[in-house]
Amino acid sequence: VQLVESGGGLVQAGGSLRLSCAASGIRFSISTANWYRQAPGKERELVATITVAGSTNYADSVKGRFTISRDNAKTTVYLQMNSLKPEDTAVYYCNAKITLWDYWGQGTQVTVSS
């Protein structure tokens, strides 16, 4: 089982990034996919969720700026991040949940400069 994130980097405030998470070894099409983030000294927080049916949910702090999507054929989940703010700086983690099983990626750093 492997979840591999990519797309992180350094961007100026107001800019955009698109994160990708490629899954292998799991039945991705029946998983709920999530993006979490963890800033230095803070707890990991849930940023966005997309269900098997394609329903989405977002943390209040990113609503209207971030969009989660999935491509089951490519077993990949995406996080489009627009209008980035310095407070979005964190390590972003991909997560897939299938019933009682929980899978995590290694994380990708996103740094937003002011």
Chain-wise SSE layout:
Elements: E1 2-6, E2 9-12, E3 17-24, E4 32-38, E5 45-50, E6 56-58, E7 66-71, E8 76-81, E9 90-98, E10 101-104, E11 108-113
Parallel strand pairs: 2-11
Antiparallel strand pairs: 1-3, 3-8, 4-5, 4-9, 5-6, 7-8, 9-10, 9-11
* End-to-end Cα distance: 37 Å
Number of helices: 0
Shape: globular
Helix content: under 10%
- C-alpha Rg, in Å? 13 Å
Structural write-up:
This protein is mostly beta strands and about 110 residues long. About 0% of the residues lie in helices and about 55% in strands. It has strands at about 1-5, 10, 15-25, 30-40, 45-50, 55-60, 65-70, 75-80, 90-100, 100-105, 110-114. Strands 2, 4, 5, 6, 9, 10 and 11 form a seven-stranded mixed β-sheet that branches. The protein has a four-stranded antiparallel β-sheet with strand order 1-3-8-7, with no helix packed on it. It is globular, with a radius of gyration of 13 Å. It starts with a strand and ends with a strand. The model has no long low-confidence stretch (mean pLDDT about 95).
